Amino acid sequence: MSLLELADVRKNFGTVEVLRGVSFSVDAGSVVGLVGDNGAGKSTLMKTITGVYRPDGGEIHFDGASLADKDPHAIRDLGIEMIYQDLALAEMRDVASNIFLGREITRNVLGVDFIDYKRMEIEAGKMIEKLGARVKSVRQAAGQLSRGQQQSVAIARALTFNPRLVIMDEPTAALAVREIEHVLDLIRNLKSRGIAVILISHRLSDVFAVCDRIVVLRQGAVTADDPTAATSMNADLENTRLYADLKEREARIRRLVDANIMGVFIWNFEGVVLEANEAFLQMVGYRREDLRRSRVRWTDLTPPEWRERDEQALEALKTTGTVQPFEKEFFKKDGTRVPVLVGSAIFDGSEDQGVAFVLDLTDRKRAEESARESEKRYREVQLELAHASRVAIMGQLTVSIAHEVNQPIAGVIINAATAQRRLAHQPPNVAGARQAIDRLVKDGSRAADIIGRIRELVRKAPAQTEELDINEAILEVIGLTRNEILKNGIRLRTQLAEGLPAIPGDRVQLQQVMLNLIINAVEAMSQMKEGRRELLISTGIEADHVVVAVKDSGPGFSESAIEQVFDAFYTTKSSGLGMGLSICRSIIEAHGGRLWAAANMPSGAAFQFTLPIAAALAATGTAAPQAN
Amino acid sequence: MPILSIPKEPFGPAVMTAAPSAATRWRVRLTSATAFRIESLLALAVMTAVMTVAAWPYFLTVSNALNILLATSTLGVIAIGMTFVISSAGIDLSVGSLMAFSGVVGCLAVNNLDAPWPVGILACVIAGALAGAVNGSLIARAAIPAFIVTLGMLGVARGVALVLTKGVPVYGLPDPIVYLGQGRPWGIPAPVILLLATALIAHVVLIHTRFGLYAQVIGDNEGAARAMGVRVERMKVLIYALSGGLAGFAGLIFAARVNAGDPTAGSSYELTAVTATIVGGTNLFGGRGSILGTVIGALIMGVLQNGLNLIGVSSYYQQIAIGAVLVFAVWLNRLNRSEGRRR
After folding, report:
1. CA distances from residue A112 to A115, A366, B208, B243, B246 in whole angstroms, order as listed
2. What digits encode the pLDDT tens for the residues A147-189?
3. CATH fold for domain A1-79+163-225
4. Which CATH number does the domain A465-628 belong to among 3.30.565.10, 3.30.1360.120, 3.10.20.30, 3.40.50.2000?
5. For residue A183, what is the nearest residue in chain B, using CA coordinates?
6. Do B223 and A86 touch (CB under 8 A)?
């Protein structure tokens, strides 16, 4: 004879059959788990047992007595307690009133039962203390307690009246993991005292942990109830769960592939593409049918020049199992190529298959191309600027240049006149005339030379690298500026080192730098009211660099301005654009060198730049200005 | 009291604080176990002070104070019944009509049926209680909202009273009954004594008996009450019967005071009674009631009406004032509720 026996219990709400003949039994001191989906009828079944609902059919016996005509109060008196999921607490009543709700302790005075709050509070306090619940006072309103505390009150209420069967509806649903363990301990404790427990829970782990038997309710009927095989059922459910886990993991991997965020294909060493996702097929322009029918081969997708790289990758795969992403190309179906990044790994446990991850680099390559394009455009603009700056300087130098050109022309005229006079002499002084004509030719070619150089500077020529003698290039610039230097009463000193190696560079650009530095120095000193005006131009060699210095004895500049002078649009001149030094620096840097400024001793500014010599340039691979 | 001993401490170390001091306990008892609020007492004091000044010197006299108490007595008795109803999250709109109906039934019983006066008294109370039981049955068993059922009863009871009397008050009651309305034992009007006695008993019933506790628990969490074995349906029938019975008792007092059964008595008393109850601190949404508060609430209503009368404000305006007080009190109640509940 079981403690609780249900036979064919039925309950309808209107036309809805919620319980359709439920039968099971609960032995004293056993824990029965009642599981089932939402809407399976668990709650209705429990409320039918506790008398809240009247069954529409079937029999419920508790300890041999029928519960059919009993109300909840009478059923509680028989020893069936229920802890409801919503806890069934009156929130405005205090803890003591809630624990004794429905069974208040009373004191009879003159035939009237008065509630004995004092005793209720004492007893409730004892119970709460025994449970170790963290409830401050039994006089606290239930509504002011935390969920955990409320649950303690509900449990205390169930245990206060010597129950023989405790029904718990989702007792762990709203609890933290730590609290769940306590509830499970409590259930074991009840069992050890011979109290039967029906545990309704969605958490199968709770059910497995404490239940002797599991009853499965489905659509209002018991579909599984095996008193002896709770453990085997446990195992079955465990298997079901593992299977579900497996399916879930498979679904996740499927998702990885089908997300089509990158190309994924599975291949074997024989060269066959076994499977591929949409992203990969789109990348190489194949369709799924091609994959199925004609067996797409990754070896055929690879252009001949990439075969060697593929061989290396296969080698790495065989030894380490993976190959880090590398760039290559694939043939598309239409014969064009697609640049890709490919990484791959062999499947564990299958020696000849692997998975490859492919990223389409077309967009990236395009972006690189456009970056190169804009770099080129930048260079062009720089060249334009440099040219404009040169022309501007030449404009400034017009007077000096005119003077420079005028001298040989004057020589030409004088020598020509001398030659004429000597030829007109009787007898003609042929030897003297030849002498004069020789000088004339020399002066003429000197003038042509100067003009040629000027034209070279003003001409808008693309940059071109040549092996050049830096001293010669500097002397030419000095020649152009000599008049400017003398005009301003500046003493020019040159210390050009002998035997410097040839420098690869653009003559015009480097001369522009020198021109700029010299003019700057001259202008700086031209404003001096007193003091020595001295310009020192020197060259030298230092490790693998040629060093060129232009030092003046002008006013110099402050520490803080030293780097600023190279900024674009920084100028101290009223007519300057402020581009000169900025352009100079970019020219020198394009040559792989460095341009910097420092204070000169004892006064003035010192500009120096370095240029790598040819051998060093080749070794370090530093870019020289490129010919476009 | 058998109690399971559970050796483990499943919910961690127990934290029981020391019992509060006697003074605190008294306060807690007064304000939390009952829903009595100090605020309602304050409101009464302020109202009295205002009326004292406004209607000087007529308001603050012993005779006027007794007048107010007398006028409040019928309302107070009705509001006490209303306190039980509202505590259970219900409402009884039929009280004014039931008061008239009961008074008429009592008067007819002694006048037309020549019943002895104790029967007349019982007839009043029983007529009201039966009508209230009908209310309760329809609400609990037929699951019709209390608002509708009692609104229906409001019409039915008033109609029956008018039909029974053909609209004319029934004059003449035996002396013992008249004494209940007009007697002055120890110089105090009898209705005032009846009100205080009713309030005392009702307070004990509400706080110290299962009936009172369950009425409040039903208003708090009906499902919990049901699950814990409270016979909710029976309780509701009893609660509305109590409300009806007290309305009948009020009808008796009123009839005794005017020595007639007036079928138009107690018109719009439902408004005033609900207002008195809510102003007294009973939770409009159920769960907590206070008889002491309700008596104070009724006094507030009495002072308000009496003061306005003395100042010379028409009773039409008084209706407006009462309506406004009701809405204001419910608004305060809501504010309290939203901050007073859980966390």
Report:
1. 10, 96, 10, 20, 20
2. 778 888 888 888 888 888 999 888 877 777 777 888 888 888 8
3. Rossmann fold (3.40.50)
4. 3.30.565.10
5. B10
6. yes
